[in-house]
Amino acid sequence: MVLYTYDGSFEGLLTVVFEAYERKAWPDKIEPEHQAQPLLLGQTVAVTTDDAKANRVWQGLQQRLSAGALRSLYHTYLWEQPGFEMLLFHYVRLAFSSPENIEGNFTADCVLQVQQASKQVHREKHRMEAFVRFQKTQDGLYYAAISPDYNVLPLIIDHFQKRYADQRWVLYDLNRRYGTYYDLQTVTLVSLEKTDLPVKQQGVLQKSAFDAEEAKYQELWQVYFDHVNIPERKNPKLHLRHVPKRYWKYLSEKQPRQFKT
Predict the structure, then answer these.
(1) Domain boundaries, the chain
(2) Which residues of the chain have pLDDT under 70?
């Protein structure tokens, strides 16, 4: 039993691949160092992230895989489901060992699973881009909390930076307790537990932090939604397929109304 541990980063995972080839010892398991349990039998290899080694692995993959396949590998990392590290490792090992391009080899379980994982992450990315709503705070900062199934925050930054280029905003992942802050010029990673913002718990802001006009804007959006909604054309099943209930918490039009119009 050989267990490789790493710091949880994508570069760290690529470094694990490099170390496994250099040692000629294939992992039976790969885990983030903060989650790994000591082995009673077997060997644990603690890998320190090395950008040079990670780049060598990535450059090797660029010679064997298309840009789409490389993107799918990164999506698999962001997928974060149990065993994703070993899935990624099996895919990379197959890519390096095969004399032909493996991208269409769906008889290999790892190829099919990587494609499926990538599609799930890609779908979650687009839904976050469509359903996220920012709220304005008292100091003019726009804030949105999200809790995606997968770690799609790195994938949606560019969308919001282009769409809201003239506003300061924070997009915060409640599940993973980190976010991004845009200051009109650059985007930086933030942890709200380490800021002066009035955080209630795990990145949730207190209502007192929001601008006094914010509730009125949300109410106007709800009124607009009511007026464009045509009862005779309601199709609940189709609506749920396009807007699953787990995304309703982001939508102003789905929140309880303070008064009826």
Answers:
(1) 2-124, 132-210, 212-261
(2) 193-243, 247-261
